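Case study.
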Amino acid sequence: MIRRPLRPLARILSARAQGKDPDLIEAEERAARLAARHRAERQKAETRLLLLGLVFVLGFTTVAGRMALLSAAVPVEPRAALASDPIRAQRAEIVDRNGALLATNIVTASLYAQPATMIDPKRAATELAEIFPDLDAGTLEARFTDGRKFLWIKRSISPEQRQRVHDLGEPGLLFGPREARLYPNGAVAAHVLGGASYGREGVHAAEVVGTAGVERVFDARLRDPERSEDPLRLSIDIEVQSALEEVLAAGMAEMNAKGAMGILMEADTGQIRALASLPDFDPNLRPPLPSRGDPADSPLFNRAAQGRYELGSTFKPLTVALALDTGLVAPTTLIDTKGPMRWGRFTIRDFHNYGPQLTVEDVIVKSSNIGAARIAILQGSKAQQDFLKRIGMFEPVSVELTEAARTTPLLPARWSDLTTMTISYGHGIAVTPLHLAAAYAMIANGGRRVTPSIVLQDVAPDESSRVISERSAAQVRSMLRQVVLRGTARQADVPGYEVAGKTGTADKPLPHGGYARDRVISTFASFFPATHPEFVLVIALDEPVNVINGTKVRTAGWTAAPVAAKAIRRIAPIMGLRPGADPEHLAPVLYTLAGNE
Amino acid sequence: MKIVLHLSGIVLVAVCATWAYRVNYETQEAQNRLADLRGEIASEREAVSVLKAEWAYLNRPDRLRALVVAHADVLNLVDLQPENFGEAAMVAFPPDPEELVDAAGDVE
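After joint prediction, the assembly is written out as follows.
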């Protein structure tokens, strides 16, 4: 660039010639230079501002554009994020001890309607009513046309029904996926499983929640996604369970009973192999709870776990077990049984008159109320209460069924001497058949209290749970064997299985006090084989009447005992229990134990 | 020299771009395949669970009993009874191998 001089020679010379001040020219030139520099700097600053503004505009445009895109875009799940998540069932399966399926899930569909998008609501209503006979065409049409936007039609439909609805071609009828709980065995083990129903529901999924039985107790565990692949294994054996139910149903019909229950328990561990209560229901179509009438008459009522009954003479062995254990009596001690026995205003009678005296063994064998009452008075009320408490008669059974956990035994408000006597033969205390089964397991396994359970687990018998001594338990077992051999339960004998047990016939209490004369609960509590018991079986019939030679018989020896015998004949071989040689002709265990060989 | 550097840079960019393009599409394809397989596994699982449920349903004790009763004339099946247990002593001894050999010799 050619610098323009501050004092251009030409102008200086001409100014000098004209006599002007040449310094003025220099000043003029300096001013011009300054102005030019200011102009350039201003230009530069303006450009910078413009650029900066442009950058900001671009930045905000990007953010705004991204936001617009995000809000307008259809949401797509990030595919890579789904890594290794297997598609699995919502709820874990339930299987029996051998792995046979008891409860599983199947995918079905739910049916709902969006009446706004319907083409021909009238036709849809008529045809739906044809597919589902329980729906009414008129009601459906009214609902389709009353302006609502959404409507459930069916919670769960079968694939065939779904196809037929699909074939209607109505765009306003829509399906949502549903997982339904399926019990492939139908009513078998219904009271154990309980049932499930839908909890919170949405169009795309619904919660399946357990409503009763193990489904309810283990609801959280069954729904735990971590363990959904791991089935819940029960201690039930489905073959034994169905055989027991069949025998019970036949027995119930034969004995004209209105209900029946059976419990089969392992004597050593308290694991329940089968638990049945009749009448039962199909858990796939669980009936609603009864709104009126006695809930105990509903098929939903689990008599084995929920029914509290005065179980009668089946309590006598417990009375005797305590007396033997405390050393108050020996099996051969004579007990005064002269009747009727008066206590205040109350009279205790026996079914027959058994003479003035019976041995303790015969008190059990012949089932003498007076004898049991006398033994109980010897023990005193305190010892009896302690004993019953220790064998779990004061609290709900620990078995994993909601019904059992809710059922606390009915205990007398005041435990007088009279109460002690009536309880000695099973009146005045109402417990569930499960309580009784647990108590008999205690006698059968040699005196250890068991924790009844319906879930397969390893339970090692341990000495800390001992209630009575091995010796007392063996003596009671031998007496109970005698009951079957020569006492009230002769009908219960099954050759080869050495059944031992005690019958109990208890008049049912009336709702307004007192006892019914012609309605009984007849119970047979047993274990087998007597010399080394493996299983405890409790059978009870509700209001049985057996007609023998034209006379009506209600005693357990003629009602529950024969049913128990049939059950053992059916069940023991299924469980692989070999019939042994009958040691009937040998001396009873009692004498060898007490002997001095 | 500068031109060579520029040219090789351009070639490198082109190669990388092609590689990235191919990997991108391969990944998308693999993801599609994965989604397909997942869907397939899901439907297989569903089928398996339905078959298992059906198997359990067909094998339910009530139905088997009804079938046994209905076909009693052919099957001749009865409930296992205590009398059906046998003793090992009740099984006949197999014939003596030496006798068998002798018998075989006689035939020849």
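Observations recorded in class. Chain A touches chain B at residues 79-80, 82, 86-89, 100-101, 104-107, 182, 184-188, 238-239, 242-243, 246, 494-497, 569-570, 572-574, 578-579 (CB under 8 Å). Chain A has a mean pLDDT of 86. We will return to this complex in the next lecture.
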